[in-house]
Amino acid sequence: MIPATPAQQRRLLDLQRVDSAIHKLRYRRANLPEQKALDDNAETLARVTSEYATARDRLDRLSTQQRRHEAEIATVDSRRKSEEGRMYSGLIRSEKEVDALRAELSSLRARKGDLEDALIEIMEQVEDLESLVATLKERHGELTGAVAALTEARDHAATDIDAELRERAAERDAVAKELPGEVLEYYEELRARKDGVGVAELQGRTCAGCRLELTQIELEDVRADSAEGLARCEQCGRILVLV
Ligand SMILES: [Zn+2]
Fold this sequence. Notes:
Elements: H1 6-30, H2 33-87, H3 95-177, H4 181-193, E1 199-203, E2 206-207, H5 216-226, E3 231-232, E4 239-242
This protein binds zinc ion.
C-alpha cells in the first residue's frame, strides 16, 4: 500500500476536482459553439467568394464580347451605308458591278442580322449575370461581416477559458506540491486508465467513482487501509478516500 496521511488523501480529492475542471475547460475550449458557427460561416464565405469571382469573370468576358459585337455591327453598318451610297451614286454602270454590289449588300445585311441576334443573346446573359453578381456581392458582404463578428466572439470566449485554465493550472500546481511523488504517480496512472477519475470519495457505503456499494468487509478494509495510506475500491480500482 502507498502511504499517505488522511490530510494528503483529502488533498488528492482536491486535485481530482481541479483536474476534472481543467478537463471540462479543455473540452469546452476545443468545442466552442462560436468556433462551430465560425467554421460554418467561413466555409460558406469561401464558397461564395469563389462563386462571386467566377461570376464577375464571366460578366467581364461577356461585356467584352458585347462591346466587340456592337463595334462589329457598327462597322458592318457603315460599310453597308457606303456601299448603298455607291449603289445609288449613279457611278456604277455595268450590270456585273451592280449584281456584285447587290450580293455584297445582301451579305452585309445578313451578317448584321446574325450579329444582332447574337448580341441580344449576349445582352440577356449579361442581364442575368449582373443580377447574380449583385446577389453574390450582397451575400459576400453579409458573410464577411458575420465571420468578423464570430471571430471576435470566438476569441472572446477562448480568452475567458484560457484565463480560467491558467488559474486552474496554478491551483493544480499548488495542490500537487503538497503530495508525495509516489501518491501523485499512482493517481495519474489511475486517472489515465479510469476515464479521468483516479480518486473517489466514499459516500456512506458507496464509491463515488463507480457508484457501487461496498460490502461490510470491504468497508472495514477501506477504513483500516485509509488510516495509513491509499485504500482502493475493489470494484473499480480507484483510490477511495474517507471524508
Ligand atoms: Zn469504485
